[in-house]
Write a structure and sequence with these properties.
286 residues; 33% helix; 4-stranded antiparallel β-sheet; binds flavin-adenine dinucleotide; 5-stranded antiparallel β-sheet; alpha+beta
Length: 286
């Protein structure tokens, strides 16, 4: 099918983009980033935006920098940019590992990190990364700008705290300390498919014990999130099979899994048990 008719806008600056968004948001005007989620839904007429504000010509949104201890990812930075480490230390390595699981090569070349956040598919890998690391986003509109923390950003399935007239300008991920251990694991039925469950674990080891543990789960619930019960099972404990199994069991008990006609809640719990333990095992080997 062909999309419904729309008007196309091509701003050159962030200010132009937010002025345009203010004008068209009430008529379901949308930002067009990589188009890898929006365009298929338009083709199926599941979305019929009357205006598209294409941000690909806004050079300022293509920046990928390190500032104030954060990796700062502009709204037009593609998934493919993360194929090789984009920053020193464990964060660059982690992102290079995670990106291999996102869709397929052509989609990674067009789709954007921030577009994934704005789209907020519960199974999007970058959403899990933002939640696990307590990242934040900068949102701008003609009314001003605000920083939204990951825990306040994701509201549910494909629902975020962004208002219709807000542009997600950049995402910020805190750099990980050099001695951080980070591991990611996901299960999907075929390579390139969205994950049915995935987990990201990060911790440091001090005096033989895990400290500052982070354990987040995505793809299983309506939004990715850190699981405090699992983190408590890791905190102050020696890394190893017993601790990883205890954390995985705690995560499995704590989640409220999504269900669909193919995947039951029980199946997703089983997957979380497996992906959580494997993410922690990968962290131990990182
Ligand atoms: C076959 C296939 C498989 C896929 N598999 C995966 C996968 O395994 N994992 C995964 O994470 N993703 C997957 N995707 C989705 C892909 O990663 C998309 O690139 C991503 O979801 C959206 O990014 P985009 O830049 O293409 O956004 P677009 O499609 O341009 O936009 C998506 C939505 O976000 C809004 N938006 C985008 N950018 C902004 C912004 N800066 N500010 C405000 N709103 C904005 C748009 O208005 C739209 O509503 C897959 C897609 C396809 C087609």
């Amino acid at each position: 099918m062909k999309p419904a008719a729309f008007r196309y806008h091509a701003p050159k600056t962030v200010d132009e983009a937010v002025v345009l968004l203010a004008e068209v948001a009430a008529e379901d005007g949308r930002v067009l980033a990589g188009g890898q989620s929006l365009v298929p839904t338009m083709a199926f007429r599941l979305a019929k935006p009357s205006h598209l504000v294409d941000i690909n010509g806004v050079a300022a949104l293509n920046r990928l920098t390190v500032a104030d201890g954060n990796l700062v990812i502009g709204a037009c930075v593609r998934h493919a940019a993360f194929r090789s480490p984009v920053c020193a230390g464990p964060l660059g390595k982690l992102l290079a590992d995670v990106v291999r699981h996102i869709a397929h090569y052509p989609i990674r070349n067009r789709g954007t990190f921030c577009g994934s956040l704005a789209h907020a598919d519960p199974a999007a890998e970058w959403c899990l990364v933002l939640a696990a690391l307590d990242g934040e986003v900068l949102a701008k509109s003609a009314r001003g700008e605000r920083v939204i923390k990951a825990r306040d950003f994701f509201k549910g399935i494909m629902t975020t705290a962004l208002a219709d007239d807000e542009l997600l300008v950049e995402a910020r991920l805190p750099l990980l300390p050099d001695d951080a251990r980070a591991g990611f694991y996901e299960f999907s039925r075929r390579v390139g498919d969205f994950a049915l469950a995935m987990a990201l674990g990060v911790y440091r080891v001090a005096g033989g014990k895990m400290v500052e543990p982070r354990l987040a789960v995505g793809g299983a619930e309506v939004k990715p999130r850190r699981i405090a019960e699992a983190e408590r099972a890791l905190d102050g404990v020696a890394p190893g099979d017993a601790a990883f199994r205890a954390a995985a069991a705690a995560a499995t008990a704590a989640i409220d899994p999504m269900e669909d006609i193919v995947n039951t809640a029980e199946f997703r719990r089983d997957l979380v048990l497996a992906v959580t333990r494997r993410a922690l095992e990968r962290a131990a080997k990182s």
